[in-house]
Amino acid sequence: MLDRNSILNPTVLFFRIFSIRRIGILSFGIFIVVLCLSSAANIEGSEEMREVLFVYKPKSTVSLKFIESFGFIETFEPLRKSSQSNVRLSRGGQGAPKRSKTSRFVGKIYRAKLQPGQSASVAAKSLERHPDIAIAEPVIPLTIFNSVPPEFQDVLPNDVQFSKLWHLFNDGQGSESREGEDIDILNAWKTFKGDPDFLMAIIDTGADFFHPDLVDNLWVNSGEIPGNGIDDDSNGYIDDIHGYDFQNDDSDPYDDSGHGTHVSGIAGAVGNNGQGIVGINWKIDLMQLKAFNNKGRGNTSTGIAAIEYAVENGAKIINASWGAEDKSRLLKQVIEKAREDGVLTIAAAGNDSKQIKNYPAAFESVISVASVDSGGRKSEFTNHGPTIDISAPGTAIFSTKVNNSYGSLNGTSMATPIVSGVAALVWGKNPDFSLVDVENILLSGVDVIDVKEELGAGRINANKALEFQEPIPTVSLIMPEKVGGQFDIIGTASGDTFKEFTLEIGKGNSPKDWTFIHSSQIPVSSSTLYNGFSTAEYQDGQYTFRLRAKNSQGKESTTQKRVEIENVDIIYPDNNDFLSTRNPIEIRGSVFGLNRTYKLEYGEGISPAQWSDSGIEIP
Questions:
Q1: Is 368:349 a contact under the CB 8 Å cutoff?
Q2: Mean pLDDT taken over the chain
Q3: Least packed by Cβ within 10 Å: which of 207, 216, 483, 549?
Q4: Largest Cα–Cα distance of the chain, in whole Å?
Q5: Quick check: 471 and 497 in contact, CB under 8 A?
Q6: pLDDT confidence of 106, banded at 50, 70, 90?
Q7: Mean pLDDT, rounded, for 193-198
Q8: 595 Rama class: left (phi>0) / alpha (psi -120 to 50) / beta
Q9: Does residue 388 contact residue 456 with C-beta atoms inside 8 Å?
Q10: What Å distances lie between residue 220 and 197, 199, 205, 224, 523, CA to CA?
Q11: How far is Cα 601 from Cα 368, in angstroms, rounded to an integer?
């Protein structure tokens, strides 16, 4: 019998093989030498890689002595176990193991565990060369086909309907989806998952307090004793445990619509609780302020009261998934006062699919949110235009609904709590940041999306936002929608961490290439960034100006402004002007640029078929 301990030494084995006279064993022994030499260079230490499955050919028998002769097997057992337990090989082993039950598919299957340091792939080849063995192969690890890559397994929540949250992780689910068009939350969660004490006010239709995915993340007013009919904390509201109902003037802001519950789940459904979904924040405090009824109707009276409550009771962020085209001066003043007190308001741009202003989103003191879909396109319903600050997923967003249920909704109402949720992550992780710091980071932590309409700085990217370790400069560009000739570029590039800014211009809505204009290490605040920019060398069309400002760590804040360059323009008369034919009509305009010539013509109707220059006198 071969000594197993000696076989592990290739030199000893070599000389022992030469002392064996039978040719069959000689060829087998020579292979063992190769095996041991190979395994010494290719040691695989994981348990699954040290196991081999093998099947005997029909009418063959299993011998303990035979298995022991391989030397590299530590234990083996039948895959379909009988009363025989696994067999551990030792010197001088006696007897033979019982036969395994036969697989009705392939025959008698055994599983062998190898000695430490042995390679399963090499051992399998060795076994399969034996005439009595039909098949031998390493035990192969199998993986559930989860679309989430292995590097995210440590941050993947166990919430059972996570796969429906394309806005958090988009693997291309759905015919119109495109992989990666999400907010990159899994990478963000490697850094931070939320602060259970961070207070966000959801001004909406209330919430379902009993929903298992919300109950642990609802704000509880610690200064109030429930149900005693007394204003214990002297804040002017009795028994306001989770917030207040300004529609019915009571302390029960329960959701009779479903909208507020859905919005709340997007921002902060409880994470990793084994059921339902997860919000942007696994843990957070959600203050519920019911300012809208079951039909989604409210007014500035209930809205303003809710904002004042949120500020007075410690909220840091107000989520406003609502608005109107009419502009309220009082609403504007209340939100500006909230901003002065360090409370950031984030509001929905609206669902009219137009370039219109809705308030409060269009106020300068508010972050206005538009919507994109799972293919990285503009959502068909979203408003757009120069007053939009940022975009977020808002099409077919799956979230919590009343009565312990879940479902999908569309709207900028759904996009807004995604931005609010990321803002809460940034601020919760960096509590010393100011409101302006958080705002700058949100508008710079984006993915640029290639769309025709203006949807703000880009789609919010949670991971990019959380990568900022210190405040970044404040940046802004103040430019008209149409420019031509020579003009000063006005804006802001400043802040405590400011180092330098760079101005650039690119052709089109989402330029791939940028042309340098100017850079400076001198901070600028609402003043001239560059003096005397000329459009003479640019053809008429749409362009994008970009302002980048670096902080001391080299991190950048970025803003962009789309403009239409018109070097040739008629200023007077304007479209639809009524003109008298009694007197000569003076045509005023501009033709800018060196060596440019022009011809002035007129025609009848909105889209003239014929043009004429008859009667036109050019001085």
A1: yes
A2: 84
A3: 216
A4: 127
A5: yes
A6: low
A7: 97
A8: left
A9: yes
A10: 10, 10, 18, 9, 44
A11: 43
What 3-state class would DSSP assign to 157? coil
Distance CA 203, CA 292 (A): 8
- Cα angle 581, 582, 588 (rounded to 5 degrees) comes to 60
Cite the beta strand spans of 32-71 per DSSP E.
51-56
* Contact indicator for 430, 287 with CB cutoff of 8 Å: no
**Tell me, what's the pLDDT at 616?**
82
Tell me, yes or no, if 259 is annotated catalytic. Answer: yes
At 41 the pLDDT is: 30
- What's the CA dihedral at 318, 322, 328, 329 to 10 degrees? 20
Catalytic residue among 259, 262, 373, 384: 259
**Confidence (pLDDT) at 587:** 85
Examine the residue annotation and report whether 204 is marked as an active-site residue of this protein. yes
Which residues on neighbouring strands pair with residue 452, listed in sequence order? none
Contact 366, 388 (CB under 8 A): no
Structure tokens at 466: 């959380």
What gap in Å lies between CA 497 and CA 588, rounded to an integer?
47
Residue among 341, 300, 340 nearest 322 (CA): 300
User: Is pLDDT at 516 greater than 80 in this prediction?
Assistant: yes
Rounded Cα gap, residues 96 and 63, in angstroms: 5
Strand ranges (DSSP E) for 294-381?
A: 317-320, 344-348, 366-372
Please identify which of the residues 368, 379, 413, 494 carries the catalytic annotation. 413
Q: What is the pLDDT of residues 108-126, one digit of tens each?
A: 788 888 888 888 888 888 8
DSSP for 486-535, written as a single string: EEEEEEEEE-TTEEEEEEEEEESSS-SS-EEEEEESS-EEEEEEEEEEE-
Active-site annotation holds for 488: no
Copy the structure tokens of residue 131: 């005439």
| Spatial separation of the C-alpha atoms in residues 555 and 91, rounded to whole Å | 66
